[in-house]
């Protein structure tokens, strides 16, 4: 295979709503992005993935699309999109859009027709969605077809009186799932995708891509996720999109899937396969769950970080795709907490741990995705009031915690630790009002620490996290670190994160402590001639036995 641009890329994930507001309505927008393109170019990224920008009632911040062909009024116009593509391309920055194919908003014309038997297009559109008749219990009362639970909490079924049916929604009830067994529906999605390609977009991140197929036998199950996740037939749909739309138009794609066997990983993103170019997977994302917690269950309870499992997840993917496909590396996206608050320490060891996380991630091979604000060490939110939160998921889950016996404070802490809103607060540009994001109160509050943590301040400091990211990104390109081969050292060590990445001209050795206490690491390798190029305490010589301070991390280089 010829080398593709995305193999050498550094992708920046941009949450448009919170990046930069250009017209002072409190909401980030396309002109805001355009005004900051120089910043992105200076940081050294060469592709941006923008969260959904389509017309939407914003029940799930744009993942609920009500018109696939329109730009949300919140974000601007189609002219702004064209201007962005043109200006980004001048700076050698590619544009990647989010493509949502699993569901729509309930406010899209398709669904309006689908749910209303009197609508002139009812017959055509009813089958674009997934319907089931009610069941009746022993008392003759209407009950849901199954007890399956949605990803946002609550049932997957919503009753539609007009047809006396339930429709399926695996996310919010304003996001009905599309029926991928319907040919017309698929053709409409293909046409729509092609339309954006023709406008000049370079790639897509395909949302919820492992959920497209459902178990149409609708067996009982609670939560029943296996009935709408990773059912083998979804690969057929993805391959169809790939062969008919993505590959003939030479457009880049990355899918999203919670997990995958080796065979599946190759199907998704093997060089020879035609589903996606790369896959976003989550094996390393919730390595600190307290999975037995009954009050704030699932991802919501925090436990000790299982460093081993983070290393093993990356290692597994590197091994599965070695020579056969291309890997992504990233810490988190808009669906997880801020990595610094999550895996680092955003108070006592702010500087040390933020750099440790940068060194451990960005010397691994694969194409990195850096998440907006990560490069300046933004933290989780500090909200004290439930109404400060915005995410649809927060409110169903809060009620759930209370019903399971949580106090208000316990529930609030779970939200501050684990909710998706943590990653979505406005970008901290400077220490002026509203962090330089907007002149008016933003759609979501800024985190108060912006007076200390902001880009303007970090730009001036050569040792800042921002300047560290910038310097690593440059080195990453110069040394083609994306392209290396990784080997973890002592992968089962519970506290350290240590590996070698061998590129064409050099060997990089990363030695890091993931804990807030001292540890010692033994390196069973030849240690001669390594030079310490990055550190977060002070420069060190390499020895076989190394004592590491809390979150201490060191990057060594050996020229070949
Ligand atoms: C995954 C997206 O990343 C998330 O933000 C969204 O809520 C769901 N898919 C549904 O579209
Ligand atoms: Ca705006």
Walk me through this protein's architecture:
The chain is α/β, with parallel strands linked by helices and 560 residues long. It folds into 3 domains: 5-102 and 183-290 and 303-381 and 451-471, Alpha-Beta Barrel (TIM Barrel); 109-168, Alpha-Beta Complex (Oligo-1,6-glucosidase, domain 2), CATH 3.90.400.10; 484-558, Sandwich (Immunoglobulin-like), CATH 2.60.40. 27% of the residues lie in helices and 17% in strands. It is built from 15 helices and 22 strands. The chain has helices spanning 30-35, 37-43, 78-90, 109-115, 122-126, 183-199, 233-246, 262-269, 307-321, 339-342, 350-362, 392-403, 408-418, 455-460, 465-478, and strands spanning 11-14, 47-50, 54-55, 67-71, 94-100, 131-132, 135-136, 142-143, 157-160, 165-168, 203-207, 252-256, 278-280, 328-330, 367-371, 485-488, 496-502, 506-513, 519-522, 531-535, 545-548, 553-559. The chain has an 8-stranded parallel β-sheet with strand order 13-12-11-5-2-1-15-14. The two termini are 27 Å apart. The model has no long low-confidence stretch (mean pLDDT 97). 1-deoxynojirimycin (NOJ) is lined by residues 60, 63, 100, 171, 207-208, 334-335.
* SS-derived structural category: alpha/beta
Count of discrete alpha- or pi-helical segments spanning 4 or more residues: 15
What is the helix content?
Answer: 25-40%
Which ligands accompany this protein?
A: 1-deoxynojirimycin, calcium ion
Q: Within the CATH hierarchy, at the fold level, what is the topology of the largest domain?
A: TIM Barrel
Label the overall shape: globular
Name of the CATH superfamily of the largest domain? Glycosidases
End-to-end distance: 27 Å
- Which regions have little confidence, pLDDT < 50, spanning 5+ residues? none
Summed over residues and divided by their number, the pLDDT gives a mean of: 97
Largest sheet: 8 strands, parallel
